[in-house]
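Form 12-C: Joint structure prediction
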Amino acid sequence: EPEVTQTPSHQVTQMGQEVILRCVPISNHLYFYWYRQILGQKVEFLVSFYNNEISEKSEIFDDQFSVERPDGSNFTLKIRSTKLEDSAMYFCASSVNRRGYTFGSGTRLTVV
Amino acid sequence: SQQGEEDPQALSIQEGENATMNCSYKTSINNLQWYRQNSGRGLVHLILIRSNEREKHSGRLRVTLDTSKKSSSLLITASRAADTASYFCATDNNNDMRFGAGTRLTVKP
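Section 2 - Result
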């Protein structure tokens, strides 16, 4: 069964450093998403991406965040100058028609 | 916000019992989805119910949707210890999907 693949599974970074979280969506999917989940809390929407541009973003997705689909297969989330409160599980998802998203297993980001 | 809100926040039952989790939301939706998350792991899509559907079944799962009350329920019948997980409802209204806080289900063997 097709999967959404996220790498790395766990990343530890120093506060103030930049991180790039990588995702390979399912190949025929057109819609891509990032969500995050702070430990013990709910899953929060960050951003959606379609046709090579952001279609919607939440208030969490401020100027320190950016997304890119650099080569037609990868979908990346960049966090510039990480803060302690960015520590969370980050989930990538993709969808062929915006119904029934497929999620990756997540990247656990720990900012120290 | 149109995020779903689940209740109860936590539910503990014995193996073999049924588990019912509820979700309420605030605005009109295209569909509502239920996801499962094992501790610290990814989200697994369980079932999608469209706004014009009232009930849907998948194996031991039964989902209902009442758009007039803006609520949904997820019933897991004959629960098993392996059903222990967090369950989230997520609403889709033409833009993007938003999640509720989840119900933590514990099934004791």
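Section 3 - Comments
The interface with chain B takes residues 33, 35, 41-45, 48, 55-56, 89, 91, 93, 98-106, 108 of chain A (CB under 8 Å). The two ends of chain A are 36 Å apart (CA to CA).
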